[in-house]
């Protein structure tokens, strides 16, 4: 009887091990075929650059192909919906931007659930926004902008890349905190906005430091403030908003990677480990810092999820208070 039950216990243990074997084997073998990186924006943008950089490095390490699939539209919602509906097999990933946390508050209905339809992988990094003005502008600081706007409300104009973008929401929050009013001028891209700022057609432009730093460093624009808690290494001479009367203010662009909900945890763990390894390589880390103005984080999946929930709640309040709707 003892021998019988011993065999039964061993059989049960073996069956239990086999129940967990497929995901472990899948993680060990991953990637066994091409992996798709969905970028929900056009080619050439920061998400596209990031996906291609990481894909190339991963291909070198694994010997497998990493395909970048650009599916732009609706502030990233079209490509994001594609990933939400993709098989949860570890072969499709979303390269999300700050719009991922803004869209739930901006759109009345999305074809996916931002918080339930995705498995977080990693918050790769963040970057501040920069507020800049024409090089010959009378505005030398945010204090100058606020004083002029208070003296004559809506006399100051600022450009962003559209209604509901991070730059737009950030300036709305600054106006509330600073007690001033400015006129929003939405653009369809960074290029036209930057040109109008250099030409003086708008008083201020707001975009990521990676977009505006070349114009600031060349003297075509003057940087007035960055939105990170500490000064940006890309613009060390430009003061933070915290230094200019907005203590603790932060408004950050960010890059994160998600998989479809239900993707096996062992695969997520393996992918996270490979990403961490290549991103922390000095050469690539330096490139991300210089090319994208990024503060590299390589967070845990749990930290990414917590970050997105917090960002979504924060910007939803700004959207609701100002009755902002997508273009």
Task: Summarize the biggest pleated sheet.
Answer: 10 strands, mixed
Task: Write down the CATH topology of the largest domain.
Answer: D-Maltodextrin-Binding Protein, domain 2
Global mean pLDDT: 91
Instruction: Write down the secondary-structure element order.
Output: HEHEHEHEHEHEHEHEEHHEH
What percent of the residues sit in helical stretches (DSSP H or I)?
A: 40-55%
The parts where pLDDT drops under 50 for at least 5 residues are 1-25
Percent of sequence in beta strands: 15-25%
Overall geometry: globular
Helix- and strand-based class?
Answer: alpha/beta
| H/I helix tally | 11
What does this structure look like?
It is built from eleven helices and ten strands. With 327 residues, it is of the alpha/beta class. It has two domains: 11-127 and 253-322, Bordetella uptake gene, domain 1 (D-Maltodextrin-Binding Protein, domain 2, 3-Layer(aba) Sandwich), CATH 3.40.190.150; 128-244, 3-Layer(aba) Sandwich (D-Maltodextrin-Binding Protein, domain 2), CATH 3.40.190. Strands 1, 2, 3, 4, 5, 6, 7, 8, 9 and 10 form a ten-stranded mixed β-sheet that branches. It is globular, with a radius of gyration of 23 Å.
Keywords:
disordered N terminus, D-Maltodextrin-Binding Protein, domain 2, ten-stranded mixed β-sheet, 2 domains, 11 helices, 327 residues, alpha/beta
Write the layout of secondary structure elements.
Blueprint: H1 2-29, E1 35-39, H2 46-62, E2 66-70, H3 77-84, E3 92-96, H4 99-106, E4 118-134, H5 142-151, E5 157-160, H6 166-178, E6 183-186, H7 190-199, E7 204-208, H8 209-217, E8 221-226, E9 252-260, H9 265-279, H10 282-292, E10 295-296, H11 301-322
Helix pairs in contact: 1-9, 4-11, 6-11
């Amino acid at each position: 009887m003892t021998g019988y039950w011993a065999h039964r216990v061993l059989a049960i243990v073996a069956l239990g091990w086999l129940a967990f074997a497929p995901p472990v084997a899948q993680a060990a073998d991953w990637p066994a075929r091409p992996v798709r990186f969905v970028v929900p924006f056009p080619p050439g943008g920061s998400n596209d650059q990031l996906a291609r950089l990481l894909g190339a490095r991963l291909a070198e390490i694994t010997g497998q192909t990493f395909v970048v699939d650009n599916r732009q539209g609706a502030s990233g919602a079209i490509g994001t919906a594609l990933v939400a509906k993709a098989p949860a097999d570890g072969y499709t990933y979303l390269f999300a931007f700050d719009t991922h946390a803004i869209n739930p508050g901006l759109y009345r209905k999305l074809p996916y659930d931002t918080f339930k339809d995705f498995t977080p992988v990693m918050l790769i990094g963040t970057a501040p926004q920069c507020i800049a003005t024409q090089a010959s502008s009378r505005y030398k600081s945010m204090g100058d902008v606020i004083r002029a706007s208070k003296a004559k409300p809506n006399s100051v104009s600022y450009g962003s890349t559209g209604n509901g973008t991070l730059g737009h929401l950030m300036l709305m929050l600054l106006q509330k905190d600073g007690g001033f009013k400015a006129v929003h001028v939405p653009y369809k891209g960074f290029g036209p906005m930057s040109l109008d700022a250099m030409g003086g057609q708008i008083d201020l432009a707001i975009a990521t430091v990676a977009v505006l730093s070349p114009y600031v460093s060349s003297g075509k624009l003057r940087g007035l403030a960055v939105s990170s808690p500490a000064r940006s290494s890309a613009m060390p001479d430009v003061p933070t908003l915290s230094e200019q009367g907005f203590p603790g203010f932060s408004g950050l662009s960010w890059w994160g990677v998600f998989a479809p909900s239900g993707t096996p945890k062992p695969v997520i763990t393996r992918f996270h480990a490979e990403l961490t390894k290549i991103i922390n390589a000095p050469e690539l880390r330096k490139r991300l810092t210089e090319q994208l103005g990024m503060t590299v984080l390589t967070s845990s999946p749990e930290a990414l999820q917590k970050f997105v929930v917090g960002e979504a709640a924060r910007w939803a309040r700004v959207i609701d208070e100002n009755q902002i709707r997508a273009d």
